[in-house]
Design brief:
30% helix, N-terminal domain of TfIIb
Length: 257
């Protein structure tokens, strides 16, 4: 993970993920608010959203009355997030920063990390640095929420099957070609993406590459406990339930300081 991530196609991010932003984010924040109320051991008012991207969930939290700070390593994404917050008429602070190097100390009641962003921690040291930074940023009783794909449901990644899809929005048409391969032992995910963008009569090809790592539910819980969290649990597919998931596609780590 480096500072060049999400640069050339940052401007197209919200087009590519328009369905997620419009349909899924409100439901995601419904779940998040439920966790705030049922799991956190303090009233949640101040929220830090790490690896926030263009600020979809961050802005939705602000709409619901939370005081939010968004942190992302990409200056281009942060610039877009700031513009979106102004357009939405909400108060949200966005800062450029690396989730592995969080500088806040006991400033927040909750920290969030959505949409597979936690998986950009590709080494044990990366993940532990992120978890420890989150722990330090939280006040006592505060809660950390992060979602990740379940590697045991990632059959397509193991087979390395490519995916091609298309998104049309206003005068922009984007063809997305994804090749995602996950190592059976390392769980490292090599994600090669090519965008073919047609905009204003011009066609542009944008190559992109991401390296991630898949984590099991037990691994996520282990890193949270090593960072100091006292109450650590994993939910499945954004459902708050008493028993841990058996067959979920999405894992949601919920750790309380």
């Amino acid at each position: 993970m480096g500072p060049q991530i999400y640069t050339r196609y940052a401007k197209y991010y919200d087009v590519i993920y328009s369905d997620y932003l419009e349909r899924s984010v409100p439901k995601l924040i419904d779940f998040t608010v439920k966790v705030f109320k049922e799991v956190a051991r303090r009233d949640v008012r101040d929220v830090l959203d790490i690896a926030c991207g263009t600020g979809g969930p961050t802005i939705e939290l602000a709409r619901r009355g939370y005081r939010v700070v968004g942190l992302d390593i990409s200056r281009d994404m942060v610039r877009i997030a700031r513009r979106k917050a102004v357009s939405a008429g909400v108060r949200a602070v966005f800062k450029v920063g690396d989730m592995r190097r969080i500088r806040f100390r006991r400033c927040f009641d909750a920290v969030t990390c959505f949409f597979t962003s936690i998986n950009y921690n590709v080494s044990d040291d990366d993940m532990l640095s992120t978890m420890k930074g989150v722990f330090r940023a939280l006040r006592d009783g505060g809660v950390f929420i992060a979602d990740a794909p379940n590697p045991y449901r990632a059959e397509r990644w193991l087979r390395g099957e490519p995916v091609v899809w298309r998104v049309d929005h206003d005068d922009v048409s984007i063809l997305i070609l994804d090749s995602v391969v996950m190592g059976r032992v390392s769980a490292l995910i090599e994600w090669e993406r090519t965008l073919v963008v047609k905009e204003g009569g011009r066609v542009t090809m944008i190559p992109d590459y991401h390296r991630l790592r898949a984590y099991s539910a037990n691994e996520l819980k282990l890193f949270a406990k090593l960072a100091g969290f006292s109450d650590v649990r994993v939910y499945g597919d954004f459902r708050v339930e008493d028993v841990e998931p058996r067959d979920a596609r999405r894992l949601v780590l919920v750790a309380t300081r």
